[in-house]
Amino acid sequence: MSHTIKTLFDALWADYLHQCPSAEDIHQLLGQGATIINDHVAFRTFNLPEVGLDKLAAHFIALGYEAKGEYEFKQKKLFARHFEHPTDPSAPKVFISELLLEQCSDAVQQAAKAMVAQLPAGAAEQPDFLYRGAQWQVSLETYQQLLQESEYAAWLAAFGYRANHFTINVNELPGFASLVAVNEALKAADYPLNQSGGEIKGSAEVLLEQSSTLADKVAVTFSNGSLTIPACFYEFAQRYPMADGQLYSGFVAASADKIFESTDAR
Ligand code: NI
Q1: pLDDT digits (tens, 9 = 90+) for 220-259
Q2: Residue 178 contacts by C-beta under 8 Å, 6 or more apart in sequence?
């Protein structure tokens, strides 16, 4: 079965709710029953040929998406690209990052290769790949070892291929004039926000403001035990118009860098 934009995002959302159970309540809190428009959905991967950024992107390219901005995160050793649908304004943007393994230690490289080697041949081409999760066995020790060097790699080992976060489009959210108002409503309802780099990352000057919850914690089964760890989080984005009056549609690397820390173990 091949996907339409709607069936793919519906499947991603259904899986995401298992990893970020608070998302449903936040929808209710902010949307009050109204339809919520997503700004973007984000994915993580390793830059190995079987599962690299392009393999994930192919699922969206097949649905008419086009590659747009490129982003580098030197300290986190990540490269990212975002994708937009040229004619369907209701289609969320897609943000895909990949860990640049050649810049990582031998231990991280070996662990990543060992995980990807467990995937069935052609796994990344399967229609459900983007919400199948971790189709590999990883030990608690490997998870802990990855965590010491790269939180990103550890998250990917534990959760695999699925939406890392959905992002509410605050511009299209009725009843909230600003991201500040959204954050106040979230805090009043006791949702902890990611404070790394400040509660709001970005500004009107860079045309994009973002905030996010701290990831919900869920129990993950590893090959030799289970652990309750940060899973997925919810993000909120407010965009500002460019000189031509169109809303800015890109991302701001300095802000995204801090958003990645929404899955830090605490
Ligand atoms: Ni995001």
Answers
A1: 999 999 999 999 999 999 999 999 999 999 999 999 999 9
A2: 170, 238
